[in-house]
Every structure is written in structure tokens, then in C-alpha cells.
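Private note to self, pasted from the team thread so I don't lose it. C-alpha cells:
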């Protein structure tokens, strides 16, 4: 998948000299998890009031966590959970001060690639509706109706990974009366 924005070249094509690279890494060390929880708290608890607690998700223990860093500053996160050939993406967040810099895109690229490596047939996520176009550019399709979680409209989205995943995606779409 082409990298739409590498985080190092401004949208106008001029090279930045002092800008540190965006690094997204798979993490599980306690200090890295604390950085992830701080980002979740900032975005999902304080900013959006989506949940009163973004630290006690039971799927965290069995998931793959990603931390995006801008220089040495933790600025974004995402979580990937594999259920057989289904990859679920959740908790994608970028600090408000770093949105629009390609960080969310890079987090998603890394998780999509990891889903492919793990043998996933398809990826599913619950997108906040303000981000639908972002996920569509990454190859996701909306499924079913919009639903509300903590007064924030969401949409289930799905993306085929493997040719065999197409049958699963087709059946999933048909279960919602879509094709």
C-alpha cells in the first residue's frame, strides 16, 4: 500500500530539515502501555467523554498494541486483536496537537500490514463518523447503520485482506442487506 503521507515531507513537497520521523512500534512493556493509556485518557476520556475509563478493556491482554512517537514524544496509538482470521482494530487515537501530520495514517498502515502477516482475511473496526473518509481512503467500507456510543455516532467498517476474505466480507455485507 503506498504511503500517502510519510510525516517527513510537508504536503507542499518541501523537505523539512529538523522534523523527527514518525515511528510506530509494537509495544507491550509497562512504561509503553502507560504511554498508550495516557493517550487514550487524553483523547477518549477527557476530550471526547467516550468512556470514563480507557484502561480496563479486557481485550488489551490478548491484543497487539502500537505506539506512535514523534521524536521521543508519544503522540498516537492503536490496538489490533486477532480472532482467527478476523482482525479487529480499536482505540486508534492521535493527540490533538499532532493531528493532520500523518500519524493516524501511519498507525493504520502498520496495523493493516500486521493483520496481513498474521493471516487475517479481513479487518473490522468501529469508526467515529467524522473519520469515515479517512478509513475509506485506507480501503474500508461502511457496513450497516450508524450507531451511537456515548453520544458519538459510529459506523462499522470492514476491509478485505485476502482473496478468501472476500467471501467473508460478502457474507457480512449481505447480513446487513448490502453487497
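Design output:
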Amino acid at each position: 500500500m503506498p504511503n500517502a503521507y510519510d510525516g517527513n515531507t510537508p504536503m507542499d513537497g518541501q523537505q523539512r530539515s529538523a522534523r523527527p520521523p514518525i515511528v510506530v512500534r509494537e509495544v507491550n512493556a509497562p512504561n509503553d502501555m502507560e504511554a498508550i493509556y495516557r493517550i487514550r485518557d487524553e483523547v477518549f476520556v477527557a476530550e471526547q467523554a467516550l468512556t470514563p475509563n480507557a484502561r480496563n478493556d479486557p481485550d488489551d491482554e490478548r491484543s497487539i498494541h502500537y505506539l506512535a512517537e514523534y521524536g521521543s514524544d508519544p503522540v498516537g496509538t492503536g490496538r489490533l486483536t486477532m480472532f482467527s482470521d478476523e482482525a479487529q482494530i480499536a482505540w486508534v487515537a492521535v493527540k490533538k496537537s499532532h493531528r493532520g501530520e500523518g500519524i493516524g495514517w501511519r498507525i493504520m498502515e502498520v496495523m493493516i500490514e500486521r493483520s496481513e502477516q498474521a493471516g487475517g482475511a479481513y479487518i473490522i473496526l468501529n469508526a467515529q463518523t467524522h473519520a469515515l473518509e479517512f478509513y475509506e481512503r485506507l480501503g474500508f467500507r461502511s457496513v450497516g447503520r450508524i450507531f451511537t456510543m456515548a453520544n458519538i455516532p459510529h459506523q462499522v467498517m470492514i476491509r478485505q485482506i485476502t482473496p478468501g476474505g472476500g467471501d467473508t466480507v460478502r457474507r457480512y455485507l449481505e447480513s446487513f442487506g448490502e453487497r
